[in-house]
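Deliverable D4.2, example record:
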Amino acid sequence: MRYGFNLLLWTTHVTEEHYPILEKLKKTGYDGVEIPIFEGDEAHYKSLKKELDNQGLACSVVTLVNEAANPISPDAAVREAAVERLRWAIDMTAAVGGDIMAGPFHSPLAVFSGNGPTDDEKKRAAEVLRKAAEHAATTKVRMAIEYLNRFECYFLTTAADARALVKAVDHPSFRTMYDTFHANIEEKNITRTITQFADSFIHVHISENDRGTPGTGHVHWDETFRALRELKYDGWLTIEAFGRVLPALAAATRVWRDLFPAPEEVYTQGLRFMKEKWAAGKR
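Output generated by the structure prediction step:
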């Protein structure tokens, strides 16, 4: 089991000014961090890897796609741009030393068609993501695609949908992930969802129902940790919380008020909460 913290609480692009945050997270007891990869080049991420190594931190990565590189677009040129974007993200993940590239890179965030996903869109996604997975297989990176709730996307909104996409892509480097925030909105039975989803997910985001400090809201935490323990889950448990430091990200994640007094509360109480809940699941 590895405990991580998503750096999107502070930034969408990790630079030297954020190195003190890495040190604080390490001292708090985290095994690693989740690095946003939205921009930058190989030299930047190799330099960041050196700092992570110096701090004794491992990492996973989070990334996404936009409308110009949309895997489900009817435009073949846009889909090819999506393949190239994902290959780039995979290469940057490898450069920073990440073992998992997570995120909703199936379709652009908050772009809606007015309908549910079509069979053609599902086919396009599988084709694009399979090409990306073939590239990931040449690295040590595994892809963990994230389903979102219906208010953030329309293409992939349940664990069942995500599992079906994994089956359609049919590649060992392509899997999915479980996010407690989205599941809290979309799933009817948490234990059953996690159990039926077990053959497909390799990564977990720990996120409260309001995106604040884990353990302060009404996510079904006891069921979640019990189900993960019973499945002998042994991957990342990574806290994902959002604040208002970055206006564009706050708008994208619909954070209109302060959800916690300070980031320190999120990462200190959050780690303690995860460890307590994991230990309680032993009984």
